[in-house]
Amino acid sequence: MATGKDAAFGLMPIEKMLGAHLYAFATSNAAAIYLQCLVEHNGTSYTTKKGAGIPGCYVEETGAAGSLLGSVIALFDSDMNPINYLPITTTGDGIVAGYALVADHPMQLFLIQEDGDTTPVAAASIGLNADLIGTGGSTVTGISTQEIDSDTVNTTSTLAVKILRAHEKDTVASAYCRYIVSINSHHNGANIDGV
Fold it and tell me: What's the pTM?
């Protein structure tokens, strides 16, 4: 994962893990779910074999205000068996397709690569916001291929992530530079509208 190499890995929690909780995916999920992909609260909860009131989520690449949660750090099928990824349209147990442990603390920091498309994220863009691109991943490793969409960097507060700084071993403004980011409009943050 060095600067100049396109080796996407989604949103990797870094520094201290501040919190993680269990979420469920609706049966017949619309997108495959991979480790370290960004997920969003779906505005509902499920009564499952694991108990009542388990909040639901789904994969997201753009920042929907007030619904973003964080990245998937573990995946389970509907029987709570560990899995690498959750394929699209998984039926599961008829209630949920599966579960994810999500790094969901509103102050959690993540490491993510930029996509190197058109123009890399400029040094002057540190402190700005951006959306992510992609919802795919590897069916072998289970790792997400989401990246910062360098073409979306702007001041807009509803974009998915805030770019805080470049990784200490990478060169700012180079293609595929890794950045430390936080989630914008976090569902568990203060003064955020509900979904």
Answer: 0.92
For the stretch 41-79, pLDDT in tens is: 998 999 998 889 999 999 986 666 678 999 999 999 999
Q: CA 74 to CA 172: how far, in whole Å?
A: 30
Residues 6 or more apart in contact with residue 96 via CB below 8 angstroms: 24, 25, 26, 27, 46, 48, 54, 56, 78
Domain boundaries, the chain: 16-103, 107-183
Count of Cβ atoms closer than 10 Å to residue 129 Cβ: 22
The token pair that represents 25 in the structure block: 């995916």
- What is the secondary structure of 126-155 as a DSSP string? TT-EE-EE---B-TTT-BB--EE-GGG-BS
Tell me the C-alpha distance between 149 and 28, whole Å.
28
